[in-house]
Amino acid sequence: MAVAELYTQYNRVWIPDPEEVWKSAEIAKDYRVGDKVLRLLLEDGTELDYSVNPESLPPLRNPDILVGENDLTALSYLHEPAVLHNLRIRFAESKLIYTYSGIILVAMNPYKQLPIYGDAIIHAYSGQNMGDMDPHIFAVAEEAYKQMARWEI
Length: 153
Description:
Layout: H1 3-6, E1 12-17, E2 21-27, E3 37-42, E4 47-51, H2 80-93, E5 98-101, E6 104-107, H3 119-125, H4 137-150
Antiparallel strand pairs: 1-2, 2-3, 3-4, 5-6
InterPro entries: Kinesin_motor_dom_sf (IPR036961), Myosin_head_motor_dom-like (IPR001609), P-loop_NTPase (IPR027417), SH3_Myosin (IPR004009)
Family: Belongs to the TRAFAC class myosin-kinesin ATPase superfamily. Myosin family.
Domain Myosin N-terminal SH3-like: 8-62
């Protein structure tokens, strides 16, 4: 698929922002190779002519259906703004501190005690495969234990 086909009206992108780091914007007019600006509509309704060249097009935003994914590798576009947005949604809105990135567990520090480490949670993750339940440090520990036991001599 040609790059210009992705930068069409109504698709969304991320643009750098000095306060928010990344700001979401909707493409207001199809991009054509050679265009010097990308016409954008910011979420507050402001129109913006964003300077671009084929090597500096802004990162595309993932579809809303992927917002809050529990595994970053499931995102259509995996780049800094997509990762930060997904982690923010999971942490700030859903109060979920763990997210997978493939076999890696990403943890956000909530700076408070959470009731997610008791015996009931340990037993819930015991015997489960990583990915069968929500991301959790106990899922990673269970997977490590299974792998270790598999190689036991």
